[in-house]
Amino acid sequence: MGGLALPKVSVKLGEEQVDLLLPCSEVEAMFRDPLLDELERTRLLRLRAWREVCKLFNLSYAQPVLKVVEGPLYLVHQNFIAGGAFSSLPMFLRFDGREFIAEFHRPVVAVNPYVYYFEGVASEWRHPVLLPALIHEYAHVAFALSGRLHLEFIRRASLDLRLAMQLPFLDDQDIKAIKEASIEVEALLEVPALWAEEEVCSRLGLTNFAERRLRLQALRDEELRRLMSKHNIAVKGPTAKVRVEAMIKHWRAVRKASLSEVESYLEEQLKEQLADTWSKLREEFGRGLKVKLRDEAVEAPAIMGRTVEWLRLWEYFLKREFKYNFLGNI
User: What domain range is 268 assigned to?
Assistant: First the structure.
């Protein structure tokens, strides 16, 4: 490094000035051992947290595998680069000659050292640092597994229109409706996890800082877009601020609600956002489109082509803006 400072941005949250280091190999090395130490110390607490999440969603299921991933490609993975933990029920859509089947697989939760660092800043280093983020991801998994895989499919179709375009019962107007509602649909399907994170943190005596986490992510995104534009790097898609404001709006509407009230709110809002397309999807679930869970493990989080592209962009950006040689320091 030759004494060069680590790449970072400074953002203002209310009256507080917050410095945020950016994903790089040195930050990963700095926080690897603290992350692993905390995970070792909190094994039983994580199991308790999972059980509390399951109680909320009336679910009986084994605790998801927790992976720690490292390396340059994971540093720029779409979740980890933003400082967010990752969870997924890997899914494949197939056609068996009669119907489409959305086949979900055994859930996995993953973090990397940068997530530990970002959660530390967001929580003002309250320990255990990572547990609220893991509760949030556990809640995503539990909500989907508790009879709501169809909503998880809708969330994914709104994030990747190529998925929706494979379904013959959706026409061009439906695809347009899904595209236009994508921000709201994504925000709505964050609500169960935000709701459960707050509830379980309360039960375990933990401070809930989900809103601070979201606002820091939005502010960091805004500053990064500004800096990247100086180097002719255009970040496509809605800003994190737009997405975060939508999430907080819907979360506040149900913060003190029961699970049944949260479900009713989601149904009403999805119907309002997707209109006739919502009705089509509801009619086809179980008929022309089945969702099912296979109790088999699939490799996740996957490294996709877009991640490799982001690696090159991130390397270029850090070198131009901060004189930091990203790959040369790995």
Answer: 8-329
